[in-house]
Amino acid sequence: MDGKTLARIGAVVFVAIAVTATAIEMTRKGDRQNSPVTQAHSLPEQDPLGAELARCSGMGEAGARDPSCLKTWAENRRRFLGEPAPPPAPAAPATMFPSAPADEPPAKIPPTIQAEPSRPEAR
Fold first, then answer.
1. Per-residue pLDDT tens over the stretch 67-109
2. What separation, in Å, do the N-terminal and C-terminal C-alpha atoms of the chain show?
3. What is the pTM of this model?
4. How far apart are CA 76 and CA 65, in angstroms?
5. 31 vs 36, 39, 46, CA distance in Å?
6. Between the CA atoms of 12, 14, 19 and 20, what dihedral angle is there, to the nearest 10 degrees?
7. What is the pLDDT averaged over residues 34-50?
């Protein structure tokens, strides 16, 4: 046998092994739940932000005017860039005097005493 024939036989054997391995892999059913296609469908269930991003991208041009989509995209940008979360807005106090108990009315504030304006002295 010369070298060309041996190389051709080797190439045919290699192709036959590759085709056989591909056919075996395509007929396997046991590992389907770990495939990337299956994992892509379960991502929205794990990450609500991902589900909202998918919803907004499916809206097309209307997503650019949707306030919830704008908030979702801003949150996605913030996560992607690694920026810290904005501090929560301070809650407004429920009463005018937050330290006073809620069942008691606030104490009555005494009226202020106003001084008479000074008058120039008569000489």
1. 999 999 999 998 888 888 777 777 766 666 666 666 655 566 6
2. 141
3. 0.36
4. 17
5. 11, 12, 21
6. 110
7. 63
Find, among 63, 90, 61, 89, the residue nearest to 76 by Cα.
Answer: 63
pLDDT at 48: 84
Query: In this structure, what token pair is assigned to residue 43?
Result: 């991502």
The structure tokens 């929560």 sit at: 88
The length of the chain is: 123
Q: Which two tokens stand for residue 5?
A: 């024939």
Question: What 3-state DSSP class applies to 120?
Answer: coil
Contacts 24+ apart (CB under 8 A), 7-15: none
Close Cβ partners of 69 (under 8 Å, ≥ 6 residues apart): 52, 55, 56, 59, 63
Q: Cβ(72)–Cβ(52) under 8 Å?
A: yes
pLDDT of residue 86: 76
Integer Cα distance of 6 and 65 in angstroms? 67
